[in-house]
Amino acid sequence: MTLIAFELSGEHPDIPVAEVIGALESEDIEFSIQYRFDQVLIVDISNANTNENTDQVYHVDLVSKLSKRLALTWHIINVLGISDSTLPDIMNMVEDVDFDEPASLTYKVRAKKIKRKSPISSEDIERKIGGVLYNKGYRADLVDPDVRYRAILTDGKCIFGRVLASVDRGSFEDRKPQNKPFFYPGVLMPRLARSLVNIARCGPGSIILDPYCGTGGILVEAGLMGAVTLGCDVQRKILLGARMNLDLYVPDHSLMFQDAGNMALKDSCIDCVVTDPPYGRSALIQARSLDILMERSLKEIFRVLRPGGRAVVVSECPVEEWAVSANFSVVDVYIQRVHRSLTRRITVLDKLQ
Ligand SMILES: C[S@@+](CC[C@H](N)C(=O)[O-])C[C@H]1O[C@@H](n2cnc3c(N)ncnc32)[C@H](O)[C@@H]1O
Fold first, then answer.
1. pLDDT for 59
2. Residue (of 243, 192, 189) closest to 213 by Cα position
């Protein structure tokens, strides 16, 4: 078994998990979910080696790709052991690990308590695991270690492993809407936009459409992953702004001035759709009503999507009824509280083959 743990952001209980699954599926990686704990998803990818490379090379390549795609994962970890979360259990488990790194490599151990649930202090765990490694001949380097180990305490378990890759959170921060050439309030933050693009199973070479593209935030995240991006909006000023933003990050993009309820696109020409239509609050709605617009645009999204394609729609009101009448199959609905007066719904829709 090759167990890989994804240490997840705690912003939402399900969206980070769905993001990992979407990314694995879009990379065509064979995997099976082994455990799901609070903020940790563990999958087995031992059957994923489908090319002629050695397991090791293939898995390193895979993890590196995933760490560049994911937004709501903190670390990707090669699981070396799982135990109950008492100190004696953790120590027994770590003692039994067959560390195969050369003794010349230095290490650092970090312990993370999810939601501070465990009564044991993180420092204690780090020190004790460090002691086991020391006794096995390894030396610590707290500043620039060769190998980073992590012990995650969650749901009464300790997941111990070697960090394979960490997600670069700073790059998402750099792309926050206020830092882009064209800013308009009320847009999705890059990390959420990226996670939705992953949930839509968008990957390098996929054709992604955002029929309500606004300032282009969703398309920037998809384009940075190598997708072919197409955006539509009904405000020329906004489309010019989207162009400024996309030019900076994804110079090769397409934008169209058109109504999401009547798109000049061929049937089945799009691989995936991720979109954040107006909610009927501040963003302009170009239609007789939001209901009519949503009903028409979901039909259009279904028409232009290829069979087997997926749409992820952000809304304030439920869209399932319109989606089902457009022939979509509803996969999931995630509810996300944004602030006191706004709760978002993220609806995942499949156009079945
Ligand atoms: C909530 S904003 C999208 C925000 C976007 N996710 C971003 O990152 O900027 C909704 C957008 O839908 C556009 N819109 C309104 N009615 C439309 C229609 N009938 N067809 C296409 N776009 C429309 C608005 O001009 C607005 O830019």
1. 78
2. 243
